[in-house]
Specification:
The chain is mainly alpha-helical. It contains 13 helices and no strands. The protein has a domain of 185 residues.
Amino acid sequence: MGLGVDKKRLEGLDALRALAMLMVIVIHVTASRATPGAFNAATMLNAASRLGVCIFFGISGFLDQRSTSRQEAFSRWLRRRSGFLVGAYIIGSVAYLGLNHGVSLGLPWTARELVLYLGFGQAEWHLWFLLALAETIAVYWLMRRIGVSAGRLVVLAGLVFGFANLALFQQHSSLRLVAYFTCVDWLVYYALGAWVAVRSEAESVEFSVERWAAPAGVIGYCAFSLIGVTSAFERGLSPARIVWFLLSCALLVGSIVWATQRELRVPKFLSRLGAGTMAAYLVHMIPVRIAERAGYLTGYSWLRIALQVSAVLVITIALSSVAMWLLQVLRRLRIGQSI
């Protein structure tokens, strides 16, 4: 691959990464001011920004794997800024905790709210994002240091995903999963991006979407199935539900291992269906939110699950078609020859 093509491709992906990051920050700050209980543009944009998180970490993993110079620059930057990052995270956490409890110290609520929103936006989310960045950097450094392959990183991220949600389940005595805002989930997206980069570099012929779409689809479908199965239960603990949850986690982790260690050959339609699954999973809650605001859904019900499944199928087909078209356009422009 020539240097010019590589430079153009990296510049384009950098622009996408910056746009995704800007979208996430702006939308979350805006959505944090939305009226509670009201479905409006900010609420929908808030859901859309979660897709930006997937884009950001996916592209980051892809970039860090594809460019040796980028890897070296990242390592140098990390060595110079690691102390600053840790210090900023600690100071920010302490500042937020202090402001959040300011009402007990006599600080008027209006002043505290103003400082929180201006200084932090939706404060909890931004702190979680900093933590996710720290985790991503740590896993990236570990991968480069001990030579862990991108496929193994996917397995590691899947394990962390399962155990973290299991801990959440134990803490809240509920079978609900936080699908969008747990930091470890973002490692899965980062790992998938890195894995795609490694697979595309390993191929001596033009990279085929079908080679990685099926594994991504397996992971996405199992993740969505895990959410759907667990959401069908009400709050409460029982041995049967614990066993069911553990089996679901095992299914997720097992599918990740299977998908990354085997050569999968599936029909093109199933590959395309799988290619858009992870992205569709991130936006499938929009029609559910609409139904909630309209009063059709109260609590967790089979109607909610049916709406989620229907939304995923429709959005998956649409997104996969758009993805195929974009790849064809990139290849014609000679930007995506190796994509």
